[in-house]
Design goal:
mainly beta; flat
């Protein structure tokens, strides 16, 4: 069809009390609109955690990607993202870039695409330090759907390498499995792994990993 649209909303939450009072929220939303040779992808992530009344995590990130196909598999691409992460000492971080992508597979059961872009990154930390740099961004998006009911394995990662400093690089990955429950609802188990080789402060951990189990709604 000339116009296709699909999206997903994942929600994971935890609320426990007693010896430990822990509250966690994890929201992931993603929408993709494809019209003939143009594709728009919008994503949003929000995470908040608290333990014994004190916040231990508060971050959100939004991104937009535009793809324009000029052959069956090659496409020109542009992207932009913005994020804030209190406990990684990031007041704000924004980036925009352009480049090329390749659609390796696109069927009802397999979807694999990669893209490389030249980006400009602007980071502002809570310490007052500002850092701007050109960088290379590599994205990979893979989904393997096992059956018509919607059982699916997925993996996405982004690798960002600054040009002016070899140690300034980071990787963000999301890998998971989706199992249908009923209709448009499914259960999702996913693992997120982030690694920042040059964080804002030495006291900030380079590695950040998280397991989550949540409910998924697709449209």
């Amino acid at each position: 069809p000339a116009l296709t649209q699909r999206g997903t909303l994942r929600l994971a939450a935890e609320d426990s009390s007693g010896n430990n009072d822990i509250t966690k929220f994890n929201v992931d939303a993603r929408s993709e609109l494809r019209y003939i040779e143009s594709r728009h992808t919008l994503a949003l992530r929000y995470q908040e955690e608290s333990a014994d009344g004190a916040n231990t995590r508060n971050m959100w990130r939004t991104s937009y990607q535009y793809d324009q196909f000029f052959s069956r598999q090659w496409f020109a691409t542009g992207n932009a993202f913005y994020e804030e992460d209190e406990f990684r000492e990031i007041d704000s971080r924004s980036s925009a870039g352009v480049g090329l992508g390749y659609q390796f597979l696109e069927t009802n059961y397999l979807n694999l695409r990669g893209k490389g872009t030249l980006n400009y990154v602007d980071e502002r930390f809570t310490t007052g330090v500002e850092r701007t740099t050109p960088a290379f961004l590599w994205n990979l998006d893979f989904a393997w759907r096992f059956n018509e009911q919607g059982m699916e394995f997925f993996h996405r990662h982004a690798l960002l390498q600054a040009f002016d400093e070899g140690d300034d690089w980071e990787a963000n990955t999301t890998t998971g499995f989706k199992y249908p429950i009923n209709g448009q609802f499914s259960s999702t188990v996913q693992f997120e792994f982030d690694y920042d080789n040059l964080p804002a402060e030495k006291i900030v951990e380079k590695k950040d990993q998280k397991w989550s189990i949540g409910v998924n709604y697709d449209w």
